[in-house]
Every structure is written in structure tokens, then in C-alpha cells.
Amino acid sequence: MGHDVIESRERGADPGDRLLLEWAVAEDRILVTMDKDFGDFIFVEKARHSGMVRLPDVSAEKRIELMDKILRSRSRELSERAILYVILDIFSRYVVGWMVAYRESAHLAKRLIEQTVERQQIEPGKLTLHADRGSSMTSKPVAFLLAELGVTKTHSRPHVSNDDPYSESQFKTLKYRPEFPERFGSYQDARGFCGEFFPWYNHEHHHSGLGFLTPSEVHFGQATKRQERRALVLRSAFEKNPERFVRGLPTPPALPEQVWINKPRAAAALSDSEALGAVIGQIDNSSQKNGFHNCPISNAKQSGRDLPMGQNQVMEDFVQ
């Protein structure tokens, strides 16, 4: 049927039912078993799971026949589902990494994060990664990776779906594009759409939250020069026709000084400049290549759209 199937014995010695269930949840896998203990864990103890199929104790041939029937009846849901991962710099709104995958997976999330951190040349201790509470982002493999990379992790508050307004805004822009279809024809269609959308979003989309600059201009330290050129154009227009500007000399929209997700009360009590100074003070005067971020970013690096495919293509995932 072409589905991604792994036998538990491929992961070594039997670690026990509970660890097998945790592993299945971490990789968002449907557990197929004959053991009734898993049903007790899921339905009696309310353990987390990504789905379970319990086969009756019949011959191997009969079990294969039953699984074939189940997969065929659910083939559309299993084959046409796609998950979009996005890593967004919330200050510049620049998408530094993205990936379309068949399913949510701790392994794929780990790989995307690892390659994005390497590509952006982020030093240990300079980055905080905020994510939702999905199974892949709260998994042990991702937690261990972030600890190894020196990346601080935070998660959205429980039962608060809009805890990250920056990510929500980016996804709204994606879904409200005129060419966004009601339904993608295939997994490859979804990848193709994203391959065109994210370069447009990073390099052509003039963001209202960035003073109508593009995310790439802010991310790579070009914002100040762009603002200065805009100010000259506005001044020239004002000097030629001052009567058109009833409010006086126009100025370009202001650039953001700082961004927060769940701003701490102590910082909220400060003015923007005071709060920004407090944050910068906590960075131990680390070098900033572009003057905007709390972590060094290479201005020579572009987005991940040119990142080569990885060697392990079992899932045919697409990392950008």
C-alpha cells in the first residue's frame, strides 16, 4: 500500500508496552497490535496515543488480510494528509525553515530544527524556540536536541490555541492567498505551493507589522537604510507640494523595537526602550551581525529554500 511501516523489533530489544506506546506517540504512528494491554493503557488509563488497531488472535494470513482491508478503506486519509512545519523569526517575521511531511513526527521536527540552527549559524545560549504542544515538539528527541544545541524551549499555554500571534498571522497570510486551493490535489501539490509561497513571503510581501518592509529586509539588517530612503522620498514630495500634506511632513511607519510572546509582567511595567535595554543586558553584550536579533545571524545566508534534500528520504519529506 506504500505506507511507512516500522516493526517494533527494528528498534532493538522489546522495551516494554508503555515505552512502545510513548515511541508511537512521539512519531505520531498508529500502533497495530494483538496485545490487549495497549487498550487498557489508552481507554482505561487515558494514555496519549496516535491511534491503535487491535487485531484478533487469528492466523498471520488472516491478520494480513484484515490490515489490508483497513488500509484500503482508509487509504485516502492516510495518503493525502500533509503536515506543514514552519520556523519563524518572530522579530523579522522571516521564515528561516519550513517542511512539508506526510505526518507529524519527532524525527522530522528534530531534523528541521537541527538544520535550521546550523544554517542560521546560531550559537548556543542565544535562541529561544517557542512551539505549540504537539506531540513532535514536546517529544524527548526534540527536547534532547535543543538541550544539545543550547536552545531554550518554551511552549504555548495549555488550551490556548492562539498563544503565538506571529505564527497565526503567517498561516493566515498563507491561507488567504488567492491561489490557495480549497483542497490540494496531492502531497506534491502542497510542496509546490509552499515552494512558491515562502520565497514570496520572505522577499516580496510588505508586512504591516514591519512598517511595510519585507521580512528579508528586516532580517538581514536592511531596514534602517530602507527607512532613510523612504524618508527622503517623502520629504521631496512634501517640499514640492506641501499643501497636499495637511498634517505636515510625513514620516515612514515606525519599525518594531521588540516583540514578545506572553510579555512578563516585570517587562510590561517598563517602557519599550527600558524593556529592550533590559533584554539586551541579559544577552551579555553578544555580537549581533545584523543589529536586530538576540542571536548572531549570518547576513550572507538566505532562507532555507535552497537547502539540499537529506539522504534519508523514506518519508519523502521536504526540508526548506
Structural notes for this entry:
By secondary structure, the protein is an alpha/beta fold. The protein is 40% helix and 10% strand. It has helices at 17-26, 37-44, 60-73, 75-80, 106-119, 140-149, 165-175, 187-203, 215-219, 223-240, 265-268, 272-281; strands at 31-33, 52-54, 83-89, 94-101, 127-131, 151-155, 318-319. The strands form three sheets. The protein has a three-stranded antiparallel beta sheet, sandwiched between helices. A two-stranded parallel ribbon has the order 1-2. It is elongated and about 90 Å long. Residues 278-320 have low confidence and may be disordered.
- N- to C-terminal separation? 28 Å
Described by the principal axes of the CA atoms, the overall outline is: elongated
For the biggest sheet, the summary is:
3 strands, antiparallel
Question: How confident is the prediction overall: mean pLDDT?
Answer: 75
Task: Kindly state the number of beta strands.
Answer: 7
Overall radius of gyration: 24 Å
- In helices, the fraction of residues equals 25-40%
Helix-strand string: HEHEHHEEHEHEHHHHHHE
Low-confidence stretches: 278-320
User: Per DSSP, what share of the residues sits in E-state strands of 2 or more residues?
Assistant: 5-15%
Counting DSSP H or I runs of 4 or more residues, the number of helices is 12
Task: Strand order, main sheet: write it out.
Answer: 3-4-7
Classify the secondary structure makeup into a structural class. Answer: alpha/beta
